[in-house]
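Weekly structure sync, notes
Attendees: PL, DS, HV (note-taker this week)

Item 1: Pectinesterase inhibitor domain-containing protein
DS walked through the input record. Source organism listed as Eleusine coracana subsp. coracana. Sequence as pasted into the shared doc:
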Amino acid sequence: MAPHQPRAVSFHRHLVMVVLLAVAAVATRRVASAASTDASMTSSSSFLRERCATTLDADLCYDSLLPHAAEFQTSHVRLARVAADVAAAHLRALLANMKEELLKTGTSAAGDALHDCASTVSAAANLVRQSSAELAGLDSNNVSEEDDGSSRRRAIRWGLSNAKTWLSAAITNEGTCADGIKEAGAAAGKVVDVDAGVAESRQHTSIALALVNGIPLQ
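Item 1 (cont.): predicted structure, written out as tokens:
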């Protein structure tokens, strides 16, 4: 059996070498992937900062959208869609808080103002969702590849026009809600948090609209 030992040792060494090479290859791929991810994140971050500078609240825009950088990367349309989704999420949360507050407020000047406000916020949330869906349609390239350039541009303009119209209407609704609460005066003291929530939601919707306005026509 002794003459077979060198062959066994050689085979073992070869096996170890193969395993080490495989591990090294995996590690190299991971490092390359991490480097690629870092580069992509840096590119997305720079793109976001540049686009947010065109909004009325650059810091809020950047801070709220950076966690979603992997979704939009450097796409104007995807960035605007993500911004609309973030705005819609804030409106949904605001509406949920309003409904809870309505249960406590009952029939009063504050209650009436809050009820009207909830109705307009609900409508605003629907409008923002419509805008997001329109932008998603543009991003998924719903326009047929067989259409000529002019047809595609018309379809893109139409989609962007819809998104802008709905976001503008949502901002109007948010303003109506805020005005209603202020008109209720001191009686609306219990809903001061709602007033602040409306203001914040309006900021996010305004950001989404600014980013839609910044989408270049192809």
